[in-house]
Amino acid sequence: QANANSSIYNKNGFEFIIAEYTLNRKYLERKEREWHMAFYQKMLSQCLGRFRNMAVLGEFPADVSADMEILKDRLQDAVNEGLLVKDSLPIENWQKLQLLLQEPKSLYESYVEEHQKKENAVNELMNTIGDRKVVIFGCGKWGKFLHVLLEHRKPDSMVGYCDNLHNHKDILIQGKSVLKPKEAAKEYPDAVYVIASKYHTDEMKEQLCLLGISERNILQYIAEIDLRLLIL
C-alpha cells in the first residue's frame, strides 16, 4: 500500500483491466473454448480484487462507474455465452459475480461488510489477549498468518506453536518452536492459547481443557488469511 498510485489501489484500476483485456482478446482468435473461459475467469478475479481493495480503503469513487458498467457488460456477455458458469468457478466468486451483475455498489458493500467482520474479530482477539503471552494451536496456514499478525500488532507476544501433528523442537517455524499440546501446557500454563484452525476446533479446545488450560485462556482465530488485515 506504500504506492497509492499502483494499479492495485489506483481508482483507474478498472480502466486498466479494460485496456488489458481489450488488448489481449485478440490472442483468443482460433483458441479452444477453454482458453476463452480462462480469459473471463481471470478478468472476473481481477475485478473482484479491485472491489476488495476499494472496500478496505473505504472508497467507492463515483467517477469509475462508467468503467464498472463496461466490465459488467463484458462479464454478462461471458455468462450469456456460457464462458462463465457456476460449475467452473469457486462458489464465492460465482456469488460475487451475481452481485456485480445486479449492482456493482452491492458487491462493494458486501466486501465492506466482510472486511469489517474480520477487522472486528481481529480487534476483539487482540484486546482479549492484552499483554499476555500467546501459544498458537495449529501451525498450518492460519497459524502462520496469525503469527505474522501478532508480530505486527503485538510484537514478542507469541512464544511458540503447539500441534498434534508436529513435534520438531529442533525445527523452527517462523522462528518459533513447535511443541506437543501436553508439553506446551506444561511449559506455558498461563499463556493464552489461540486455536488457529478451520476444522476440529471443538476437539482442540477440549484437549487443552483436559490438559489444564483454563477455558478463559482459550481463544479462536476466525479471520482467515487476509493480507489486508496487516494494514490495520
Q: Uncertain spans, ≥5 residues at pLDDT below 50?
A: none
Structural class: alpha/beta
String of helices and strands: HHHHHEHEEHEHE
Q: What is the approximate shape?
A: elongated
Mean pLDDT across the residues is 91
* Structural Rg: 22 Å
Quaternary structure? single chain
Compact overview of the structure:
The chain has 232 residues and is of the alpha/beta class. Helix content is 52%, strand content 8%.
Task: Report what the structure shows.
With about 230 residues, this protein is α/β, with parallel strands linked by helices. The chain has eight helices and five strands; from the N terminus they run αααααβαββαβαβ. Strands 3-2-1-4-5 form a five-stranded parallel β-sheet, with helices on both faces. Helix 8 (about 200-210) links the parallel strand 4 and strand 5 (about 220). Helix 1 (about 15-25) packs antiparallel against helix 2 (about 35-55), helix 1 (about 15-25) crosses helix 3 (about 65-80) and helix 2 packs across helix 5. The chain is elongated, with a radius of gyration of 22 Å.
